[in-house]
Amino acid sequence: MGKLGDEELSTRYRELLEVAYNERVEDSNVCDMWNEFKRSILVAAEAVCGTRKIGRGKKGTAWWSEELRNASNEKSSAWLRWQNARTRQAKNREWDNYK
């Protein structure tokens, strides 16, 4: 759980996300909204948890693991499969996989 296990830091993180949510632009397309959402999460996490050098001196976040990278890649792949599905049945199936 790391730093977000601390109630004060967790509260600050939620506050930053709430501010970002309230400032969002709803007139953009889904991809733009997702990128803004992702950026907001990363900015809030960095502001609250900070960053440190890991591995071979590369700057990164300690909480980003191989497991999260794989989950993120799978989510992105599922989204692309949903977008490329041609029939309603295929779209429904891929949407269930995406969720």
Q: Structural class, judged by helices and strands?
A: mainly alpha
Question: How many helices in DSSP terms?
Answer: 4
| Bulk shape | globular
Round the mean pLDDT to the nearest integer and report it: 80
How far apart are the termini?
24 Å
Q: Portion of residues in helices?
A: 55-70%
DSSP strand count: 2
Order of helices and strands: HHEEHH
Outline the low-pLDDT stretches.
none
Gyration radius, rounded: 17 Å
Sheet having the most strands:
2 strands, antiparallel
Kindly report the spatial arrangement of strands forming the biggest sheet. 1-2
Number of domains: 2
Question: Hey, roughly how much beta strand do the residues contain?
Answer: 5-15%
Put the structure in a nutshell:
This protein is mainly α and 99 residues long.
Descriptors for this entry?
single chain; about 100 residues; mainly alpha; 2 domains; two-stranded antiparallel ribbon; 4 helices; 2 strands; globular
Topology:
Elements: H1 7-22, H2 30-49, E1 52-54, E2 58-60, H3 66-84, H4 88-98
Antiparallel strand pairs: 1-2
Helix pairs in contact: 1-2, 3-4
Describe the structure.
The mean pLDDT is 80. By secondary structure, this protein is mainly alpha-helical. The protein folds into two domains: 1-63, no CATH class; 65-99. It is built from four helices and two strands. It starts with 6 loop residues before the first helix and ends with a helix. Strand 1 and strand 2 form a beta hairpin.
